[in-house]
Amino acid sequence: MNIENVTISSNKEIAMNLWRMSMNAPKIAAAYMGPGQFINILPNNNWEHPIRRPMSIASVNGNNVEIIYKIFGDITDQLSRKNSGDTINILGPLGNVFTEWDNKDVEPILIGGGVGLAPILNVYESCRNPFMIIGAKTASEHFMKHDPKNNIYLTTDDGSLGIAGNVMKAMDEIVLHENSIIYACGPEPMLHVLQKHAANKNIRIQLSVESYMGCGVGLCQGCVIERQNGHVQEHSYHEKYSLVCLDGPVYKNSEVTFG
Amino acid sequence: MNIENVTISSNKEIAMNLWRMSMNAPKIAAAYMGPGQFINILPNNNWEHPIRRPMSIASVNGNNVEIIYKIFGDITDQLSRKNSGDTINILGPLGNVFTEWDNKDVEPILIGGGVGLAPILNVYESCRNPFMIIGAKTASEHFMKHDPKNNIYLTTDDGSLGIAGNVMKAMDEIVLHENSIIYACGPEPMLHVLQKHAANKNIRIQLSVESYMGCGVGLCQGCVIERQNGHVQEHSYHEKYSLVCLDGPVYKNSEVTFG
Amino acid sequence: MADLSVKISNTIFKNPIFVASGTFGYGTENPELVDVSKLGAIVTKSITLNPREGNPPPRIVETHSGMINSIGLANIGVEKYISDMLPVYENMDTPIIMNIAGSSMREYIDVMKKVEDVSSNIVGYEINISCPNVKEGGMEFGVDCDMTEKLTSELRKLTDRLLIMKLSPNVTDISAIAISSENGGADAVSAINTVVGMSINHSSQFSNIYTTFGGLSGPAIKPVGLACVHKVYHRVNIPIIGIGGIVNSDDVIEYFLAGSCSVQVGTANFRNPGITEIILHDLNNYLNEKHIDSISSLIGRVKTHG
Amino acid sequence: MADLSVKISNTIFKNPIFVASGTFGYGTENPELVDVSKLGAIVTKSITLNPREGNPPPRIVETHSGMINSIGLANIGVEKYISDMLPVYENMDTPIIMNIAGSSMREYIDVMKKVEDVSSNIVGYEINISCPNVKEGGMEFGVDCDMTEKLTSELRKLTDRLLIMKLSPNVTDISAIAISSENGGADAVSAINTVVGMSINHSSQFSNIYTTFGGLSGPAIKPVGLACVHKVYHRVNIPIIGIGGIVNSDDVIEYFLAGSCSVQVGTANFRNPGITEIILHDLNNYLNEKHIDSISSLIGRVKTHG
Ligand SMILES: Cc1cc2nc3c(=O)[nH]c(=O)nc-3n(C[C@H](O)[C@H](O)[C@H](O)COP(=O)(O)OP(=O)(O)OC[C@H]3O[C@@H](n4cnc5c(N)ncnc54)[C@H](O)[C@@H]3O)c2cc1C
Ligand SMILES: Cc1cc2nc3c(=O)[nH]c(=O)nc-3n(C[C@H](O)[C@H](O)[C@H](O)COP(=O)(O)OP(=O)(O)OC[C@H]3O[C@@H](n4cnc5c(N)ncnc54)[C@H](O)[C@@H]3O)c2cc1C
Ligand SMILES: Cc1cc2nc3c(=O)[nH]c(=O)nc-3n(C[C@H](O)[C@H](O)[C@H](O)COP(=O)(O)O)c2cc1C
Ligand SMILES: Cc1cc2nc3c(=O)[nH]c(=O)nc-3n(C[C@H](O)[C@H](O)[C@H](O)COP(=O)(O)O)c2cc1C
Ligand code: FES
Ligand code: FES
Q: Of A35, B164, C178, C275, whose CA is between 20 and 30 Å from A258?
């Protein structure tokens, strides 16, 4: 885990409001353990926004670390105004990783919704020809080709590109085996539905979840998510809630509870 | 008085930490009434710094309004990072003006200390060959030539350029007449000394003063300076204190009290 | 078009965007920068019995996302308010709420009596019992339930106009003071006045404020204002006017959800005297886009967990 | 080299930069990011009698120059603190101050007794009577002079280690609580804990914090912390540990000038767990450049006007 002032090597809008930023981050790249991990970003020195912003690592190549982000508020807006050559401060790599996707027996099904696509793309680039479903509201939010022949399925809520509907619609096209593992990242309702779906079909699933993070390194206890085990004692610590920044962001099967 | 989003036409460092910025501000240029007036600057949309920053107008040419500023803290630092083409929001023109310098009988003596030089240069450019004294700590803070033949005197505290000492040292070189009027802007101690000097020599003086401003337009009552008249009633309003943003920033002779 | 009108007691305001006392002068200062006829109401600078020069400088300083002030209730005094301002207000469409401050029960009463004795179109009074910067700011009332109730009921006897008590956040239990105001007969409470703060120049080692302590305002205190409004909301039946760190229409919505029936914009006016017009415009769009028919339907509607 | 050491009662700390309770875990979390041996002291997360899971999410949200938290005193409980942490602290050079919270006098006493019964090298206790987020946070003590004095004196009987009462800013008169702490036998007070705040998502209309109200911290509250410290400074003779919005060495100087004899850094650790090392480095340079021999010479030395 390192804090690094990094130089931005490129920063481009790849779809509507969706940006890809590359930075030269040798220390963080060296410590990187795999898809699923994230960094915690500080784009400036002022204290209007005291807290860093977590962003999944979308790829690591040599010293180069990439993120894919969507403009939501102030900080992501500020990020989008950075030019190559500018520096930002990042802390990472943080969190755990997706597992087993590199196991030959496993057939990964990658599902990304909204900005959840960053860690999903990261797995994708390390796999040979996995199934991948990327969901968005409308065509302009997509930057890839709907390419079912190559196992890439895009969905749009408004039907303007690929399969009309949400990612579950695309699931219908995919035959699940006992070796299938779903890797998913996206909005909570999507993860919730997928979690139930996987349980029903009795296949494995790994979910990368989001939570509001104060520090990313286990200090603030802010980022908790409820665990789904039934063994919680009245007086316990860390049985009922898990720290997403340390124990996550990747959880397996029905480890955690949504909503 | 207008609020205007203006485009920066140039922004250059003219001496150590001293910058000159030009902006295209047609409405404010049109309403401009003369040297002494200032604008109130908002360089960004975030609320880390809720309050604008006042800056004297250094010149107006056509639609072009210029300021000269020194990097003190966050906002002046942010200003220095702006490029031509960027926009900022300004409010102005504000405050009153230096008077009588354009009267043929008057012999203006212009004195600027530190960042107080902006309004002084503004008068200078409208006068024919007046005396001008510019004080600074050291040579690197100056951007003009010490040129006594042309009535331009530079001083430095450390003697590294022009006359060694403060602006009062340069005053020795100038013969005062009853038609002389001193126009001064700079740090409070300098204004204080000059005010006393003018009173002793029985000549007129106009001082542009600074105060901490919350609004620049008479709403906050924050920017007061004490008046020097002895007629203050116990229960009065606005007799003891004057609002620098509305009544000033230019005060005559012994109108106001320092320290 | 969403309905922006709000009702306090029997008075209907065309919209809920008021300007806060002490941040908009007497309402007539900057006609070039703001069209005051668009405002829901103007709350004028605190008026005392005698004119006041206010505190020596430095009176204000910026802090992180906020500012501290210690103006010291500089004002023209009630006589001049009556002679110079009331006639001007006769010709204005904007409802005027007169803010009154005092150092004793007597002073509040005397000021209000003088105004009640003349004819005017002001719609109500906001009673400042919460100015942290001067002895005369009423803070001894604002921290004491009994004195608040007594003051409120004495003033209630004097006027049929709106009577609004302005509450301080610098107390252990703001609800208790709100309840006392309600018991005393107030039509509404407004919250919050500034939070006690201090600022030091580390280099000169001087206090940045002449009176050492001053009042913190601006976006920094928005969470404090929201908390105070929401606490009071559950404890009184009279309307609450929300104040503290409001700079845009989202903030207004949040204050409504917390329990406000209208809001006052303070420090933001210093940045842009016309900011209330922008807020109003954005608020209208917001409600239309979200198909919210009436802003009043949002009052207190924050969704809590668990 | 400026002398950075500070003294609280009979204990000398090598420097005045402490980390605040609840913002640095148990002090052992991030060895890669911060060398804790450089710290003046570590104040550990509030410990209660039983372990606590804490409040449901959402627990934190950012605000203008600040954040609100409602962690709900999630902690490992005193037994585990004794079995797992105390042995670790034996091998650390950094002084450990244990922060204790409770919902009753009994609970505070039981926790302290258990720790006093075993041998350890912790240097003192900070008593949290000011957590705004849970019933068990001690706030009923922190707002009441008599209860504060009683609790302090009961705990005083149990220990010869440093006894520090941590004060809440959410009271009408913080000095009164400080005086009660002094009367009860506290060695020092620390101020401030968080300011009660609230945050709402205007779009979802949900409270951004599960418990609706939470504690505001960060640069936004620095003026409040400075004011509290300076008020208390004039009323008690015991040292004050300054807390609230400290992010750099200038802030430390300001807190000293206001009356602090040391400081705690809280929220800033979340941005950079190693920020205290930077602050310490800059503080040293600052003092050297200004030829200030000893940081303690600044305590309470703010220059006021008039
Ligand atoms: C583990 C993790 C990985 C993430 N990866 C990505 C990614 O790859 N690409 C991407 O675009 N976004 C990602 N996010 C979300 C990203 O952190 C938010 O979009 C970002 O914080 C928005 O900041 P803002 O200032 O632009 O918006 P704001 O206006 O501050 O906030 C908009 C929303 O962003 C979320 N948010 C704000 N601050 C935080 C915080 N400190 N921690 C968590 N959420 C916050 C909140 O839901 C908030 O309502 C990730 C979040 C987590 C927890
Ligand atoms: C009428 C007037 C004219 C001015 N003209 C010029 C000029 O031509 N060139 C120039 O460089 N500077 C000028 N100043 C000073 C200028 O306003 C400050 O340098 C600037 O505000 C510093 O802002 P900052 O954020 O960089 O520094 P900060 O770190 O915010 O402050 C540094 C110092 O600047 C002063 N300052 C900060 N905010 C304000 C404020 N709202 N009002 C007044 N002073 C403030 C304070 O003394 C403060 O200690 C003028 C000030 C006034 C009142
Ligand atoms: C410079 C200044 C002067 C103020 N004067 C008064 C006043 O005279 N009477 C009063 O009741 N409140 C006064 N206030 C408090 C405001 O009306 C308001 O309650 C407070 O500033 C919080 O709102 P804000 O955060 O939007 O500024 C003043 C505030 C400021 C900043
Ligand atoms: C996430 C979080 C958790 C905290 N937990 C505790 C706690 O357990 N006990 C306590 O006494 N104070 C706790 N505090 C308060 C801090 O110790 C400190 O008093 C407060 O945050 C103000 O300092 P700051 O502005 O530097 O953060 C907590 C603060 C935060 C932000
Ligand atoms: S984000 Fe702070 S503990 Fe996880
Ligand atoms: S700066 Fe606000 S009244 Fe002058």
A: A35
Taking the CA of residue D65 and the nearest CA in chain B, the distance in Å comes to 7
Q: Please report the pLDDT score of residue C1 as a whole number.
A: 80
The CATH architecture to which A107-252 belongs is: 3-Layer(aba) Sandwich (3.40)
| Shortest CA distance from D306: residue in chain B | B259
SS3 label, residue A204: strand
ipTM over 0.95: yes
Options C131, C145, C228, C261, the catalytic residue:
C131
Where along chain C do its domains lie?
Answer: 6-58+73-197+216-298
User: Could you count the other beta carbons within 10 Å of the beta carbon of residue B196?
Assistant: 13
D278 φ, ψ (degrees, to nearest 5): -65, -45
Is A31's Cβ below 8 Å from some Cβ in D?
no
For chain C, how many residues are written? 306
Domain coordinates of chain B in residue numbers?
2-94, 107-252
Residue A27: per-residue pLDDT = 97
In this predicted model, what pLDDT tens digit does every residue of D166-221 receive, in sequence order?
Answer: 999 999 999 999 999 999 999 999 999 999 999 999 999 999 999 999 999 999 99
As its CATH architecture, domain D6-58+73-197+216-298 has: Alpha-Beta Barrel (3.20)
Residues in A touching B48 (Cβ below 8 Å): 46-48
- List CB contacts (< 8 A) between B51 and chain A: none
Q: Among 3.30.1330.30, 3.40.50.2000, 2.40.30.10, 1.20.120.160, what is the CATH number of B2-94?
A: 2.40.30.10
Contacting residues for C24 by C-beta, under 8 A, at least 6 apart? B219, C42, C43, C44, C45, C269, C273
* Residue C131 is a catalytic residue: yes
Confidence check: pLDDT of D132 > 80:
no
